[in-house]
Design brief:
Oligomer: heterodimer
Helix content of chain B: 55-70%
Strand order of the largest sheet of chain A: 1-2
Structural class of chain B: mainly alpha
Order of helices and strands of chain A: HHHHHHHEEHHHHHHHHHHHHH
Strand content of chain A: under 5%
Shape of chain A: globular
Number of helices of chain A: 20
Largest sheet of chain B: 2 strands, antiparallel
Number of domains of chain B: 2
Distance between the termini of chain B: 64 Å
Number of strands of chain B: 4
Number of helices of chain B: 5
Order of helices and strands of chain B: HEEHHEEHH
Radius of gyration of chain B: 24 Å
Radius of gyration of chain A: 22 Å
Structural class of chain A: mainly alpha
Shape of chain B: extended
Number of domains of chain A: 1
Distance between the termini of chain A: 40 Å
Number of strands of chain A: 2
């Protein structure tokens, strides 16, 4: 316990420096600013803003990126409540009751409740992250390469099972991501792999280029095609602070949502995406009068918003302790860390305690800032939401162009991103969900590295992967899980979960 | 008969990608002395990808599914064309095959160019509005990225001596 407090104190000395506070603030503000735009989710927001953090020192960059992430999440909820357009899967649930509340003239209360519930969840989740960091890291240090390989396989299988749509298609996206990660010169043997004689890709594909092409440009094309009727709430936002009754009604749901979200977020393979759905279902089940849900029930905002934020935060745990990103957003974080020469994994905490604990402390500060920034700035977000898309998308496009160019001052990168924009658009047209591709791309490199280490012993065969009992059981578990997901009965109940 | 055209096409695309990957990694060893060869991961993923493609194609013959979606070729061409215009003009591009070079124009020209081309993808775009918007936006970007963040992005054509 004292360890945790001491470590958090260390973290706060790092996070509370003027520079890091400013970066955290800027991250939250810009993240919300971009995240509020309809149709731009956290993945696209982070991908877009990644290059502006390249010039910072590693800790500053990570603090700013996490701020951008929370900001984008919160911006997505704002859009969900005010415009009825979810920025990402996790804010779908918020549209149900949040937008109803807004229509009843209680937009302010919905936003306020979401902000307070998120802050509560964020505070709790920060403590969970801090508390689990030491034991998880100790555990992770015991893992051998075959264990890590098996963990990654399990994470990918989870990502497939939790992805929307058909299982073979989600699996195909992950495998395609892994395949793309092998393009370029093999780090160990120096052989060219699938470079087709193009010198620009001999160092491998750039992660930011793929992310921005598939999530930035392809999203724009998709949005242009489906011009949603934007239903921006007219009239007043109303007061922001929930009344005593509102607070009483939302306290318990927020707490339950926080617990659910914190737990689901730790799971490998994007468990966090389930959290708001699970919370909403739970609240509806235990409510005295379930018919209120969908008609502006405040519990339906407080619970899922808390779950959403808690899950967003605890999904840092697998990344920071095991070095395995659980979802596409965390995969982007890996990309950012690698650019700064950091290898995510258990050694970060021992070798760079300032960075590790500073990041965790900044999570809480970021949550506090969101509360402070967002409530007074609601008016600004509403005005931003009224900017027509015909002006918004060229602006986003130009930011992306400048961002990619700035990665390495190479116009070729910009062209390559356009190519990936086309690829991403084609994937969407063929009914693929591209988020798992990014996860596969990042994990592909880590997997190959661990596979090599695991099999570098003399006389190693593929069976050596099952040498350690942990690795063997994880691999068997993943295989069973995958099999179950393909079976029709499970597929049906899985669909039901996503329906709700 | 094909019951799910979208899946049918998706599966075929996967098979095509897998075949290209397989053929281009033919020369890479699957394993080598001391463990994993450079070909193991690409070849095995290509194999799995091809298998999944086949599975999806077979599935599309059995169960009903969504039709092929219409592609908005014009929109895509405009948006990605704007991006390409930016890439080609920001620092200039030599095109020896065509016998001329695209001059380096800097952000001051490449920015509005990209915005104006991309904006054509939306039919509700109004010319005067978007021209003013492009200029103002580019000016803000120059202030933000070049002067506040200090990114080394060229701003004006070198002819103007900056």
């Amino acid at each position: 316990m004292f360890d945790i407090l001491g470590n958090l104190a260390l973290g706060f000395t790092v996070a509370l420096t003027l520079k890091n506070l400013a970066l955290c603030f800027a991250g939250c503000l810009i993240g919300t600013l971009i995240g509020v735009l309809p149709g731009v989710g956290p993945i696209a927001t982070i991908a877009m803003l990644l290059p502006i953090t390249y010039g910072l020192d590693p800790i500053g960059a990570l603090i700013m990126l996490s701020g951008i992430y929370y900001g984008a999440q919160y911006g997505g909820s704002t859009t969900a409540i005010l415009v009825n357009i979810p920025g990402e899967a996790t804010s779908v649930v918020t549209t149900l009751d949040g937008h109803q509340m807004a229509k009843q003239g209680r937009a302010g209360v919905a936003l306020g409740t979401a902000a307070i519930a998120s802050f509560f969840a964020g505070t709790f989740a920060t403590l969970v992250v801090a508390g689990l960091a030491l034991p998880m890291t100790a555990l992770a240090l015991k893992f051998g390469p075959s264990d890590r390989f098996a963990l990654m396989v399990m994470g990918l299988v989870f990502a497939v099972v939790l992805a929307r749509g058909s299982v073979p298609k989600a699996l195909a996206m992950i495998v395609l991501g892994i395949l793309l990660s092998t393009i370029g010169t093999d780090g160990e043997t120096g052989e060219d792999r699938m470079t087709f004689g193009i010198p620009q890709i001999s160092d491998g594909l750039d992660f930011a280029v793929i992310a921005m092409g598939i999530f930035g440009f392809a999203e724009i094309l998709k949005n242009l095609e489906n011009p949603e009727a934007r239903d921006v709430v007219r009239g007043t936002i109303g007061r922001l602070l929930p009344s005593r009754d509102d607070l009483r009604a939302s306290a318990a749901p927020a707490m339950r949502g926080t617990l659910l979200g914190s737990f689901l977020g730790i799971l490998p393979g994007n468990g966090a995406v389930l959290a708001p759905f699970a919370s909403y279902t739970l609240e509806k089940r235990i409510a005295k009068d379930p018919s209120r849900f969908g008609n502006g029930a405040i519990e339906g905002v407080a619970g899922p918003e808390a779950a959403n934020n808690a899950g967003a935060q605890t999904s840092f745990i697998p990344l920071l302790t095991l070095g395995i990103p659980p979802n596409a957003v965390m995969a982007l974080m890996v990309g950012a860390m690698t650019i700064h020469g950091l290898i995510p994994g258990p050694q970060i905490m021992s070798k760079q305690p300032q960075l590790f604990w500073g990041l965790i402390a900044s999570m809480w500060i970021g949550n506090l800032m969101l509360l402070i920034i967002n409530l007074p700035l609601v008016g600004l977000w509403v005005r931003l939401l009224k900017v027509p898309y015909r002006l918004m998308f060229p602006a986003i496009l130009l930011f992306c162009c400048i961002g990619i160019y700035s990665i390495g001052n190479k116009p070729e990168d910009v062209m390559m991103t356009a190519a990936f924009g086309f690829i991403g658009y084609s994937l969407l047209k063929l009914g693929f969900e591209p988020a798992p591709l990014l996860l596969g791309f990042v994990l592909g490199r880590l997997m190959e590295e661990n596979l090599r280490q695991a099999m570098s012993k003399a006389g190693a065969t593929l069976l050596s992967l099952f040498d350690s009992p942990l690795a063997a059981s994880l691999l068997v578990f993943s295989a069973v899980l995958l099999m179950l997901a393909v079976l029709p009965a499970v597929r049906k109940s899985r669909e039901e979960v996503f329906q709700e | 008969m094909v019951k799910s055209p979208q899946d049918f096409a998706a599966g075929l695309v996967l098979i095509a990608i897998a075949s290209i990957a397989w053929i281009s990694t033919l020369g890479l060893p699957f394993s080598q002395v001391g463990g994993v060869g450079s070909g193991m991961l690409p070849k095995s993923t290509a194999l799995i990808l091809g298998g999944l493609g086949l599975l999806i194609v077979v599935g599309s013959l059995i169960s009903e599914g969504p039709p092929l979606e219409r592609w908005s070729v014009r929109d895509a061409a405009m948006v990605l064309g704007g991006v390409l215009a930016f890439a080609l003009t920001i620092r200039g591009t030599p095109l020896p095959a065509l016998g001329f070079n695209i001059p380096a124009l800097g952000l001051a020209v490449a920015g509005p160019l990209a915005v104006l081309i991309a904006a054509q993808a939306d039919r509700s775009t109004r010319l005067i509005e978007v021209v003013i918007f492009a200029v103002v936006l580019t000016a803000l970007c120059i202030i933000l990225f070049r002067f506040l963040l200090g990114l080394p992005i060229p701003v004006f054509p070198p002819l103007l001596g900056y």
